[in-house]
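Task: sequence design from structure.
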C-alpha cells in the first residue's frame, strides 16, 4: 500500500503527466447519488410524472437512468463536493494530467456535473444499452488508456475491478474491509478520508434533519386544553399524545420537503447547511426515514386518539406535502397555506381532548398565524436584498413586494388583537374568567410582540420560522410570562 505523496521531482512529475486521473462521481466527487437527486428534482417539478417513471423503473434501473434526463435537466448548482477528492484533482491538473469523470449515472448527468464543476477534461457515463459500472467501467478505461495506464478514485466495492486495472488506486472514505480488499486488488493504493466526519455516523445529521426544535410549533395543540381549562391528567395525556403524533408527522414532512427542495436549499445562505443539502446525510436515508416517521405518527393516533384527530392529521400531512411540491411557489397562496397549517394544529388539539373548538380561537388563529406566515416570507425577501438577488428560489416574490408584505403582516397582526379584545368582552370570556376585564392587559402585550417581530424581520434578524425564533428569544419569553400572569390574575384575584 502506498501512503507517501507523489514525488515533487521533475522526472516524477513528467511521468505522472502520462497517466490520466479517473474519478468516480457519486460518493467520490460528490456527497450523494445524482440519479436519486435527479429523480427527486423531477418529481418535485412535476409529481404526475411519477407514474411514467415507475413504469421505466419496472423495465430496469438502466432504463430509468436513461429516462430521467429526458424529463428534466439535472440540478448541479451548489453540489456538495468532497474536499480530499477535489484536492487530488487540483493536484493532478496542476501537474498537467488529464482528468476524467467516469460514472455509472447517465452520460448526460455526468456531463452536466463535469461542466458545472469545471474540473474535468472528459466525462463518461451510462446509456440505456450500456451500464458503465464495475467490470464494464474497467473494460472501457482499459480500452482508452490500457491496463495500468490510469489512476482511479472510487468509494465502493463496485469499483474493485477498476482499482485492479488501475496503476494506482485511491479510495474515498473506505471502511476497514473495503481498504483491505482494495489493497488486495492493487498493491499501489492510497486511502483518502471522506469529509465531513458525518460519513462515519449518520445519527447526528439525521437528528438535525428531523428538526426537533421545530416541534415547538406543535405546542399549539395545547391551546384548546388551556383555553377550556381542562387541566386534568386524562386530557393532558391526550394532548401530549397528539403533540407526539404531530411531531412525528411534521418531522416526516420536513425530511420530505428537504429532499424535494435540494437545489433551492443549496442556493440559500442558511438552508445550504441542512443535512441533505450539504451531503452530511445521504438522500437515501431520508427516503427511508420519512415514511417510518409517518407510520409511527399514524400508529400513535390510531391507537390512542379519536378517529377525527387521525383524519385531521392526514389532512395536515397531505397539505404539507402539497405545500412542499407546489403551493409554496404560488404568491399569497403559500402564506395562507402556512397559516392554515398552524390553525390545523389548534383544531387538532381540540379533537385530541374530544372538546369543542371556540369560534373565537379560530378567528384569532386565522389572523394571528397569517401574520406569522407573512413574517416568515418577509424574512426571506429581506435576505434577497442582502444577497443582491431579485427573486426567491421557488417562491413567487421579488424585492419589490417587501412594502406590501410588511403592510399585510401588520394588518393581520393588529386584526388578531382586535379579535382578542372582542373576545375579552364576550359572554364566553365572562363564563370562564372571574375578572375578564383584566385580560385586556394582554392586548398591548401582543401588539408589542407582533410589532417587534415585524421590525426584527425587516432588519434581517429573523429566523426562517418566527415561532422557532420566539422559542429562543428572551423578550418573547418575557411577554409570554406576562400574558400567563395576566391570565392567572383574571382567575385568582
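Answer:
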Amino acid at each position: 500500500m502506498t501512503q507517501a505523496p507523489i514525488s515533487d521531482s521533475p522526472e516524477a512529475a513528467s511521468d505522472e503527466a502520462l497517466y490520466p486521473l479517473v474519478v468516480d462521481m457519486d460518493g467520490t466527487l460528490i456527497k450523494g447519488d445524482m440519479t436519486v437527486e435527479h429523480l427527486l428534482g423531477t418529481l418535485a417539478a412535476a409529481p404526475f410524472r411519477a407514474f411514467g417513471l415507475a413504469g421505466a423503473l419496472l423495465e430496469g434501473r438502466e432504463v430509468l437512468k436513461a429516462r430521467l434526463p429526458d424529463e428534466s435537466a439535472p440540478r448541479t448548482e451548489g453540489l456538495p463536493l468532497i474536499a480530499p477528492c477535489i484536492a487530488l484533482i487540483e493536484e493532478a491538473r496542476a501537474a498537467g494530467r488529464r482528468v476524467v469523470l467516469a460514472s455509472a449515472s447517465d452520460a448526460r448527468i455526468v456531463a452536466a456535473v463535469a461542466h458545472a464543476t469545471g474540473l474535468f477534461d472528459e466525462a463518461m457515463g451510462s446509456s440505456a444499452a450500456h451500464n458503465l459500472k464495475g467490470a464494464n467501467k474497467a473494460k472501457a478505461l482499459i480500452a482508452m488508456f490500457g491496463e495500468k495506464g490510469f489512476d482511479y478514485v472510487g468509494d465502493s466495492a463496485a469499483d474493485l475491478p477498476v482499482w485492479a486495472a488501475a496503476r494506482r488506486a485511491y479510495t474515498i472514505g473506505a471502511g476497514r474491509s473495503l481498504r483491505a480488499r482494495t489493497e488486495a486488488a492493487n498493491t499501489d493504493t492510497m486511502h483518502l478520508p471522506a469529509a465531513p466526519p458525518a460519513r462515519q455516523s449518520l445519527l447526528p445529521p439525521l437528528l438535525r434533519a428531523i428538526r426537533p426544535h421545530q416541534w415547538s410549533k406543535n405546542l399549539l395543540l395545547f391551546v384548546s386544553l388551556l383555553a377550556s381549562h381542562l387541566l386534568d391528567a386524562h386530557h393532558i395525556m391526550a394532548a401530549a399524545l397528539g403533540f407526539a403524533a404531530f411531531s412525528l408527522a411534521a418531522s416526516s414532512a420536513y425530511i420530505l420537503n428537504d429532499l424535494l427542495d435540494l437545489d433551492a436549499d443549496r442556493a440559500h445562505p442558511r438552508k445550504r447547511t441542512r443535512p441533505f443539502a450539504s451531503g452530511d446525510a445521504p438522500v437515501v436515508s431520508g427516503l427511508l426515514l420519512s415514511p417510518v416517521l409517518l407510520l409511527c405518527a399514524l400508529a400513535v393516533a390510531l391507537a390512542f386518539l379519536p378517529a377525527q384527530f387521525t383524519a385531521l392529521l392526514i389532512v395536515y400531512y397531505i397539505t404539507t406535502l402539497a405545500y412542499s411540491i407546489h403551493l409554496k411557489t404560488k404568491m399569497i397562496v403559500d402564506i395562507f397555506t402556512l397559516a392554515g397549517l398552524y390553525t390545523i394544529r389548534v383544531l387538532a388539539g381540540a379533537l385530541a381532548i374530544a372538546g369543542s373548538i371556540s369560534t373565537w380561537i379560530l378567528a384569532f388563529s386565522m389572523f394571528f398565524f397569517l401574520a406569522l406566515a407573512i413574517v416568515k416570507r418577509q424574512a426571506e425577501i429581506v435576505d434577497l436584498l442582502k444577497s443582491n438577488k431579485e427573486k426567491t428560489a421557488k417562491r413567487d416574490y421579488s424585492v419589490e413586494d417587501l412594502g406590501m408584505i410588511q403592510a399585510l403582516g401588520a394588518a393581520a397582526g393588529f386584526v388578531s388583537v382586535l379579535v382578542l379584545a372582542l373576545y375579552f368582552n364576550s359572554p364566553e370570556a365572562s363564563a370562564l374568567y372571574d375578572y375578564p376585564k383584566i385580560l385586556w392587559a394582554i392586548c398591548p402585550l401582543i401588539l408589542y410582540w407582533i410589532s417587534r417581530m415585524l421590525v426584527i424581520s425587516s432588519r434581517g434578524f429573523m429566523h426562517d420560522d418566527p415561532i422557532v425564533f420566539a422559542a429562543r428569544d428572551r423578550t418573547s419569553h418575557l411577554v409570554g410570562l406576562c400574558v400567563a400572569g395576566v391570565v392567572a390574575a383574571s382567575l385568582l384575584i
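The longest helix spans residues 233-260.
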